[in-house]
Amino acid sequence: SLQDTITLHNGVKMPYVGLGVWQMKDENEARNAVKSAIAAGYRSIDTAAVYENEESVGLGVKESSVPREDLFITSKVWNSDQGYDTTLKAFEASLKRLDMDYLDLYLIHWPVEGKYNDTWRAMEKLYADGLVKSIGVSNFHQHHLEDLLSKSNEKPVVNQVETHPRLNQAALKEYCKKQEIALEAWSPLGQGKLLGENVLKELGNKHNKTAAQVILRWHLQNDTIIIPKSVHENRIKENADLFDFELSQNEMEQINELNRDERFGPNPDTFDF
Ligand code: NAD
């Protein structure tokens, strides 16, 4: 069900499905989407300082009928805040904007060269102090993870990376699995750009589901955490209605054939922001 969780390596349970709120910048957009999602049964919300909507997310959470402790809230430290002291300050500012006293998950948004190890030291401190229940990373290649793991005490619980049928991240996923790091897909729908693919439409017709639901089900059967984004109540519901059908092995393989190792977003080795 929508409340199904994955147990992270530190024992914390994280919902497989959450709402992503990137590009919800208008004052009440994230607030309303969060309320719709929680009413539809979502328990996990993925925001970030750089999305500039943490206040709006916090209001949506408060106005929902679900207590804070039953929700799973993720935010991320932005690139310009990386480093030890600056990360501690950025975390405090995020909590304040969300008006919460802890986060469930805090992520390093991008692996800023020369800084992400100091940033991680601050994340470990926040974790030790109990201000965040789990810490993880985003946009880390295997070489970034190898470097981080060789220099740290705590292992990230998740790596949130661009993942969809065009970019299935098979090699990174295998490495993460060995390290007990869960894979979380950003742009799980390929930002909506894959919904016209024939194979997805055909499989959708066969199962009486939409192409979006077929992609999201493919992720779940790959044991991947997903945070699809929509501001529309009907799509928010649609993106969570994934638990009454199953793709066969053969159908999973048909979707795998869409892979081109092709990104819609930036490469973590060359991003510049
Ligand atoms: P997505 O793959 O979730 O696609 C969202 C878009 O697909 C929507 O804007 C809409 O146009 C379309 N869509 C959604 N549901 C649909 C449906 N049922 N039917 C038809 N069209 C539909 O893209 P995303 O927003 O890039 O990624 C999801 C979340 O991942 C973000 O909101 C954010 O929380 C996170 N993210 C993180 C990073 C990172 O660097 N860590 C980067 C990008 C996104």
UniProtKB/TrEMBL annotation:
InterPro entries: AKR (IPR020471), AKR5G (IPR044500), Aldo/ket_reductase_CS (IPR018170), NAD(P)_OxRdtase_dom_sf (IPR036812), NADP_OxRdtase_dom (IPR023210). Keywords: NADP, Oxidoreductase. Substrate binds at residue 109. The record marks 76 as: Lowers pKa of active site Tyr. Residues 18-259 form the NADP-dependent oxidoreductase domain. It comes from the Bacteria. GO terms for molecular function: oxidoreductase activity, acting on the CH-OH group of donors, NAD or NADP as acceptor. The active site is at residue 51. Belongs to the aldo/keto reductase family. This is Aldo/keto reductase. It comes from Falsibacillus albus. The lineage of its organism: Bacteria, Bacillati, Bacillota, Bacilli, Bacillales.
